[in-house]
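We close this part of the discussion by returning to an individual protein. Part of our work consisted of pairing the sequence of a single chain with a tokenised description of its backbone. No coordinates are needed to read the tokens, only the vocabulary itself. The amino acid sequence and the backbone structure tokens for this protein are reproduced below:
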Amino acid sequence: MSNKELYSQFCNSKLDIPVFFQPWWLDIVTHEGSWEVLINTSEDGKVRGVWPLFQKTKFGIKYGSMPPLTPYLGIYVNYPDNIEKEERKRAFEEKVVSNLVEQLGDQNYLNQNFHRDFNSWLPMLWKGYRNTAKLTNVFEDLSDLESIKSGFKDSLRNKLNKAAPNLVVEESDDIELFHSINQKTFERQGMAIPYSLSFLKEIDEGLSKRDQRKIYLAKDQDGQYHAGAYIIIDQKYHYLIALGADTKLRKSGAIPFTIWHAIQDAAKSKKAFDFEGSTIPAVAGIFRNFGAEQVPYYNIYKSRNKLTDALLTMAGKF
């Protein structure tokens, strides 16, 4: 049995595997490269840990990076049921992570955002990997929406109150309309949208047939669309994966109004909500105003030498 076949079986047996780790997801998002998976097993063949990797090649250099629209990958550790003591858990993690790093070998370059649940990066440090903390905002418990709303910044509550009489949020299947709204946000920042409509359609088709996505669009009484949000869903989380607003209409408060609708919808499903962070200052400020917990996750990086760094930077590795 190949690693991918074994990995597919493993993912089917573990309900808490994030959507971004799923083989079908990786098949779609790695269209500009390929993906492979490293697997650590026990002597009796039980999977103890997995590490899916997105691989590309530039200038003859094979390297690992992040696929588009994929916020997290990294190592997933499958703990035995009988582990209770923290010391035993840490020792198990070290063995699994060390083995997977050894399997990877001397990679030319690797830059990967690890899922928030991963904290066992010490064996990677011993092998020369470096770590930078990134941040996202998460509501882990949505059982008390009134309490959550009380934690909003005052200006956010004012925007929501202002938007409520003028806007309505609808669920939609119109991926082309969402993409056009999403594109306007990048244009306002002087940036090109980093994924095509055709690529987004592929992702949307894979998610929608599994009932793992929602598209929310905010419109006014005249039928003008002000903002949109694209949510990806797995067993634990609703992820705010993409967001957009019409530049001319953005003062209506449609962006936070749409996000708040999405949060309330996640609460109905008894799942958590991950804002999935943002490096755009204006967007990061909007997320912060909701008062969700700021949660770190690891960006883990290793490069063979400065020449590799320079060549891949020129090629636009990110």
About this structure: The mean pLDDT is 91.
